[in-house]
Amino acid sequence: MSMKVAIAGIAGRMGRTLAEMVHAAGDLELVGGLERTGSPWLGQSIEAGLSLPSATGAIIDDIAALPEFDVLLDFTTTQSTLSHLATCLTRGTAMVIGTTGFTADEMMKIEQASTHITIVHAQNYSVGLTLLLDLVQQTSSKVGAEADVEILEWHHNQKVDAPSGTAYALLQAVKAGRQNASGSIVHGREGLVGARPSGEIGLHAIRGGDIIGEHQVLFAMNGERIELTHRAASRSNFAEGALRAARWGIAGGAAGLFDMRDVLGLDPAPSD
Q1: How far apart are CA 46 and CA 33, in angstroms?
Q2: Gap between the Cα atoms of 180 and 268, Å rounded
Q3: CATH class of the 3-121+235-264 domain in this structure
């Protein structure tokens, strides 16, 4: 039996990629898509609007009007995701969330909902990036707070939040490896900043062109440095990871809040 999939933000960059990959998968069925109120895509069929031959379903702005689905793929905005979360909770359907920028209170709502439904929430669904997080934590645990650490991320000029959610996930991996040793976080530097304080971690965001996503963690020590880098060449990497997470979550069937480390069977993600 095919798994029924709905996609929020289906006409956006990531939404289109997800729709194409779901439509091409033999074990998945695309049943509908959501867009914001006022979107020019509303009212169109997925087949016509996204040029997906033989695709069923329509693009609408009301999640309650979607036909039955097993999982919602949501890479939208924090407020839209929370609105969709309420309906998924009522319906008892799973969610794969790629939205970033939630406040602590908003994350609490997601955690509460996950006691009733399956939710996979990751800052980045790339398998390679998930492995990078694991490598960063391992490296940080070996070099300790003696290494100067800089985290850099590059994204396209339309990305609205900075630094990226993935950069913050990398920051948590560094801190977890250090066992939360004290140290300040600095976002860029300007002027006479003085000598670098012990334990400081630099966090930097670069925006330009159509860069899909690049993340680098630099561990600088006396006489040597380690550079761990992940570059995304296509959004299909993220989409494939999201579909992998959806399949994993539905197959498991257990309520809970999971991430890509769970999907790949790695150690649990570091916490704040």
Answers
A1: 7
A2: 16
A3: alpha beta
Active centre residues (catalytic): 155, 159
Q: Which CATH number fits domain 127-232: 3.90.1150.10, 3.50.50.60, 3.90.320.10, 3.30.360.10?
A: 3.30.360.10
Q: At what angle do helices 236-252 and 13-24 cross, to 10 degrees?
A: 60
pLDDT of the residue at 271: 58
pTM for the model stands at: 0.82
Residue with token string 């309520």: 255
Q: In the chain, where are the structural domains located? A: 3-121+235-264, 127-232
Print the SS3 string covering the chain. Answer: CCEEEEEECCCCHHHHHHHHHHHHCCCEEEEEEECCCCCCCCCCEHHHHCCCCCCCCEEECCHHHCCCCCEEEECCCHHHHHHHHHHHHHHCCEEEECCCCCCHHHHHHHHHHCCCCEEEECCCCCHHHHHHHHHHHHHHHHHHHHCEEEEEEEECCCCCCCCCHHHHHHHHHHHHHCCCCCCCEECCCCCCCCCCCCCCEEEEEEECCCCCEEEEEEEEECCEEEEEEEEECCCHHHHHHHHHHHHHHHHHCCCEEECHHHHHCCCCCCCC
pLDDT in tens, 6-58: 999 999 989 999 999 999 999 999 999 999 999 999 999 999 999 999 999 99
- Give the pair of three-digit tokens for residue 148: 């100067």
Angle at Cα 188 formed by Cα 184 and Cα 193, nearest 5°? Answer: 70
